[in-house]
Amino acid sequence: MKITFLGTGTSQGVPVIGGRHAGLDLSNPKNWRTRTSAHVEIGGLRVQIDAAPEMRLQCLKNKIEFCDLFILTHGHADHIAGMDDLRRFCDVIESHALPVYSNEYGMERVRAMFPYALGERPASSGYPCFRLREMPEVLDLGEGAKIYSVLLPHGPVETLGLVFEERGKKLAYYTDCKALTPRALELARGADALVIDALRPKPHPSHLCLEEAIAYSLELGAKAAYLTHTTAQLDYETVNAKLPPPCQMAYDGLSVEI
């Protein structure tokens, strides 16, 4: 398996417009974070997780030229706003619509924002479109590769947590959540790589803070833990120097083979 972090910043991006960035070294490219999204290669397939507002630029920069399916973790703007750019992947597929998986809230938002792109693609060079599906608890990709899903609390809505498994390797992707449920802990325990929400130093009502993310990483016994969806309050070098193993801050463009 392989994961590429296309974006690792919070909903406003880092740095924010007109923001104050005391303690943030803007000469370090790892402190320039687009909105959170990722691309996973598993079982010979390419899975896009979320579509940030900068999705087109993220794909061009990281040479993402195709995806077999798309998973929307939830319908908040920083994760859904770039979905129109998925239509380019529909062009590449040619023969059918792009499978788009989400939870109930995510599907509701897709229907509201992108009604023009829904439905099966007509046989004759029709408009690029999405095939919308509810994410199952287990999505079997074949060849021994699976994606498990679990609902995580995120303020008044729920986010899809995702665990990718292939040939004994495990990648857990838990963004935008306030806590990990017992099922989420069960699925991610002993992960080879854990990607986890770590918004800021202070507690937040709908996100994990830095201390909470570290605690979960240690509790789960992850071999490597990557902190994502971070704000301008977290300087890459400063925070990384203080993190206990196996934790480290993720950054835009980071690619990890598992």
Please give a handful of descriptors for the protein shown.
single chain, alpha/beta, Metallo-beta-lactamase, Chain A, 7-stranded mixed beta sheet, 29% strand, globular
Give an overview of the whole structure:
There is one protein chain. The protein is built from 7 helices and 14 strands. The chain has a single domain, classed as Metallo-beta-lactamase, Chain A (4-Layer Sandwich), CATH 3.60.15. The protein has a 7-stranded mixed beta sheet with strand order 6-5-4-3-2-1-14. It has a 7-stranded mixed beta sheet with strand order 7-8-9-10-11-12-13. The protein has helices spanning 55-62, 77-80, 87-93, 104-113, 182-188, 210-220, 236-240, and strands at residues 2-7, 37-42, 45-49, 69-71, 98-102, 130-134, 138-142, 145-154, 157-166, 169-174, 193-197, 225-228, 247-249, 255-257. By secondary structure, the chain is of the alpha/beta class. The chain starts with a strand and ends with a strand.
The total count of strands amounts to 14
Which class in CATH terms? Alpha Beta
Structural category is alpha/beta
CATH architecture: 4-Layer Sandwich
What is the CATH topology classification name?
Answer: Metallo-beta-lactamase, Chain A
> CATH superfamily, please?
Ribonuclease Z/Hydroxyacylglutathione hydrolase-like
Proportion of helical residues: 10-25%
Low-confidence stretches: none
- CA-based gyration radius: 17 Å
- Given the structure, what is the number of helices? 7
